[in-house]
Task: inverse folding
C-alpha cells in the first residue's frame, strides 16, 4: 500500500521575492507512526504556547531557525521517502496565461500534482492513497481534481488498484503538516532564503527524486518561432 502526503510552498503569481513554486511529498508505509513521531516532537520540543496548537507551519515566524532545523532533522529520522517537483514562475507555459498573467491556476496545479504523482510510478501496490491540503482551485472543482488525477494514474497502475485521492484540512492531519515542512524547507532553498542550504541538506538523505517542471519551455518555444 502506498500512502502519499503532499503540500506546496509558494504561489504561481508574483509573491515578493519568491520565484519558485515547490510541491513536496513523502510516502510511508505507516502513516500512524509518522503522525505520532511529529506530534510527539511538537509536544516535547516546541514552546509552551505552541505545544497544543492544531498546526505548526514551517513558515511560522515565531519559530527560531535552530528549532526549525532540528524539526527538519526529526522529520528526516522518520520512515519516509521524499519526492518533489519545483518550477520557476517565469517558466509557466502560455496555455495557463492570459496577458502574461497566470489565469488557469487550477488546471496548472492539477497538472503539477500529476507530474509529481507519476514519479511514484510504476507501482504494483493494490492501494494508492494520496492526501493533500484542502485548497481552492480556480476553475476546477474538487470532484474534477480527483477525476483528472485518477484518469492520469489508472493506465499506469495494475487494473485492480484502489485509488484514493483526498483533500483534507491540514489542521486535522499531522502528515500533511510534515509535507508542509518539507515543501517549506525546499522552497526556502530554491528561493535563496535564510538557512535554505541547511534545510535542503537536512532532508537530503530522504530525498529519492526531484524534478524541475517547464525548465526549457520558453527556450524551446522561441526556437520553433525562428
Result:
Amino acid at each position: 500500500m502506498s500512502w502519499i502526503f503532499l503540500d506546496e510552498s509558494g504561489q504561481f503569481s508574483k509573491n515578493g521575492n519568491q520565484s519558485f513554486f515547490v510541491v513536496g511529498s513523502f510516502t510511508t508505509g505507516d502513516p500512524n507512526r509518522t503522525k505520532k513521531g511529529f506530534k510527539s516532537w511538537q509536544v516535547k520540543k516546541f514552546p509552551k504556547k505552541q505545544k497544543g496548537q492544531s498546526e505548526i507551519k514551517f513558515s511560522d515566524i515565531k519559530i527560531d531557525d535552530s528549532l526549525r532545523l532540528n524539526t527538519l532533522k526529526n522529520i528526516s529520522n522518520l520512515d519516509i521517502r521524499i519526492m518533489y517537483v519545483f518550477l520557476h514562475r517565469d517558466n509557466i507555459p502560455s496555455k495557463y496565461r492570459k496577458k502574461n498573467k497566470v489565469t488557469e491556476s487550477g488546471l496548472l496545479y492539477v497538472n503539477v500534482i500529476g507530474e509529481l504523482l507519476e514519479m511514484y510510478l510504476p507501482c504494483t501496490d493494490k492501494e494508492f492513497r494520496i492526501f493533500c491540503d484542502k485548497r481552492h482551485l480556480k476553475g476546477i472543482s474538487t470532484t474534477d481534481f480527483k477525476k483528472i488525477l485518477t484518469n492520469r494514474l489508472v493506465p499506469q497502475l495494475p487494473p485492480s488498484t484502489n485509488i484514493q485521492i483526498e483533500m483534507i484540512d491540514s489542521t486535522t492531519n499531522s502528515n500533511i503538516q510534515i509535507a508542509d515542512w518539507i515543501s517549506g524547507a525546499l522552497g526556502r532553498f530554491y528561493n535563496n532564503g535564510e538557512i535554505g542550504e541547511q534545510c535542503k541538506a537536512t532532508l537530503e538523505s530522504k530525498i529519492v527524486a526531484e524534478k524541475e517542471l517547464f525548465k526549457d519551455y520558453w527556450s524551446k518555444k522561441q526556437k520553433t518561432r525562428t
User: Anything to note?
Assistant: The first helix runs from residue 31 to 45. The first strand starts at residue 2 and ends at 9. Residues 43 and 51 are 5 Å apart (CA to CA). The mean pLDDT is 93.
